[in-house]
Design a protein that fits this description.
By secondary structure, this protein is mostly helical. Helix content is 53%, strand content 2%. It contains 9 helices and 2 strands. It has helices at residues 3-18, 33-46, 66-78, 88-102, 116-132, 139-155, 164-180, 207-210, 228-252, and strands at residues 106-108, 112-114. Strands 1-2 form a two-stranded antiparallel ribbon. The protein is globular, with a radius of gyration of 19 Å. The mean pLDDT is 90.
Amino acid sequence: MMGITHATSGAAAWLAITGTMPIVTAGAYPLDPVGVLAGTAVCAGATLLPDADHHSATIAHSVPVLGRLATGVVGAASGGHRQGAHSPVGVLVTFAAAWALTLVAFPIDPLGTLAIGAGAGTAALTAFGLKARALVRSWPAAWAIGALLGAFIVVFAPEQVAWFPLAVLVGFVAHLLGDLLTTGGLPGLIWPWRIRPPRALRPVPVLNRVWLPNGYVSLPVLGDTGSLRETMLGALLGTYCFVGSTYEVLRLIGVDPFAFW
């Protein structure tokens, strides 16, 4: 799945889980408009984290030299692209790291407790998501907007850090589900071990598309990465994000569109 579709799917997933718009959101973890909107930006960026194992990923271009160095380290540690970073192990490690960031907070008078860790994470993930979704043209612009949102969380809404690990988790898992729906698939649930199908089963129709010869698992309803089906899904999710975000912005400024119904 392409980076822009990943980021859009993460944003849509967060809106569906935390938004309060009637009918179109699940409301499983309802938040105030600040949490919904800020979390949408974080979740969109978090969908790009599994691809930190690839030298050409969005993250690799985020910071000169350091971006490629970071993706090189992640790729080496995880065994390459679509391996450890695309497994349950990657999910657990990333969630633990996100939770640890929420612990980096310092009490400073008269501002109170500053959530430095979650603010820095918000800034970085927002920048990744903005660039992946082509909402800004340059990395400096993406980082500037990310820094503003991160600073807002640190100074004005430190209580918002409670949702930060969940937003990272949802975004990360959304990425894995997106890749599962393409022909490339995922390495399975027990990485670093891969169970390859017996030779006798490899020619079996349908099964050979789901259980790949290399041991990966796939539900390829979207076809190859960048397919027309993926593009159509991305457009549909983008529309959903626009509607859901607009509703939350209206709530933020005190307008409830459904109050007139």
